[in-house]
Known about the structure:
Layout: H1 16-33, E1 39-40, E2 46-48, H2 49-55, H3 61-66, E3 69-71, E4 77-80, H4 85-94, E5 104-113, E6 125-134, H5 139-155, E7 161-167, H6 171-187, H7 194-198, H8 213-220, H9 231-246, E8 252-253, E9 265-273, E10 281-287, H10 291-294, E11 302-308, H11 309-315, E12 328-332, H12 338-350, E13 355-357, H13 364-373, E14 378-382, E15 387-392, E16 397-402, H14 406-416
Helix pairs in contact: 1-5, 5-9
Amino acid sequence: xxxxxxxxxxxxxxxxxxxxxxxxxxxxxxxxxxxxxxxxxxxxxxxxxxxxxxxxxxxxxxxxxxxxxxxxxxxxxxxxxxxxxxxxxxxxxxxxxxxxxxxxxxxxxxxxxxxxxxxxxxxxxxxxxxxxxxxxxxxxxxxxxxxxxxxxxxxxxxxxxxxxxxxxxxxxxxxxxxxxxxxxxxxxxxxxxxxxxxxxxxxxxxxxxxxxxxxxxxxxxxxxxxxxxxxxxxxxxxxxxxxxxxxxxxxxxxxxxxxxxxxxxxxxxxxxxxxxxxxxxxxxxxxxxxxxxxxxxxxxxxxxxxxxxxxxxxxxxxxxxxxxxxxxxxxxxxxxxxxxxxxxxxxxxxxxxxxxxxxxxxxxxxxxxxxxxxxxxxxxxxxxxxxxxxxxxxxxxxxxxxxxxxxxxxxxxxxxx
Length: 417
Ligand code: HAM
């Protein structure tokens, strides 16, 4: 026998039952986002590699080691999209969306690709629902987006949700703060853990996450980015918070919140769920006021988020989703009735009846059992001469008619019921 082939590591098949749960999630997202003015967008599954190198940032883990990059037949370097914000900003510029009323509000449900270590809740192909509002720096945009994501997570029943919030200010302010923090850490080097000391140059912010008692004591007195925001950034953040308070969206200020993408400015946030293990991030995002310009467009502010479909499915209490109900099962009284029965099934489907037909060569008894299993409302048992027995499985009644009358009869009964 030929060896079996399995789905690649970090990927999964979405089987029909799970697909129904995901369709219900998509439906909820649409119901929440479209009325708030967000229109659906789809961008290609792959883009020129430079988009992510420039957009997401050369120094990020994503660009350094997680991208699926390949050369196509024409020798171009292409990359399977690892995230959606840079592609949408590219589309905003490419289609001249700055000429539309601002902000342009878009949402998406798409698959993304990252070469990460696969584990529960972390995959190499995963799906995100995302929303982006491009073209306004009004703090109400940030608050609106955060509130919409909170509503979505609530509507789908994600358990133990927490929202962490911070502001990164401007890139220049952030660079200055980083230096300030580095010199503070160096001045207190002797009290830090080896790990933190070794990472002062690379990632000084990580020191805020440390468990080491000496490091924690040092960090309690450390300068904080939020305290060193420029006045207009601090004002922007205060307004975002005031609106979240007004909307009664709970959040915690997290001084050490860092996101894995370089494009963020000002507001950043992350939703976690206690129902998830190590990969507790259920959604996150923030403002990216420099990204559109970095991609060759006019200076344009933007803000958005993305939430992981698989993480939502893991963190939400299982909600049973029923399969589509079956109106009619078309059975064969004898094999020679195949063509006549096929005609009945086709006519029924054209009339929008949910119709299954016998396709497995079952005995009549086997066919009736199958109709039962599907919980079909009607079974039509068709003979070669067209004589048909129509059973109403709900009422327990039965009648004889011609094959051509079956659909009309069901529609008429339905109209009366
Ligand atoms: P992100 O934090 O990299 O942000 O991803 C957002 C969400 O996608 C995560 O919170 C998580 O739920 C899910 N996710 C990420 N990686 C994986 C994975 N390997 N397997 C399963 N789920 C995953 C972004 O992607 C930004 N584009 C969000 C954004 C939009 N910022 C502004 N606008």
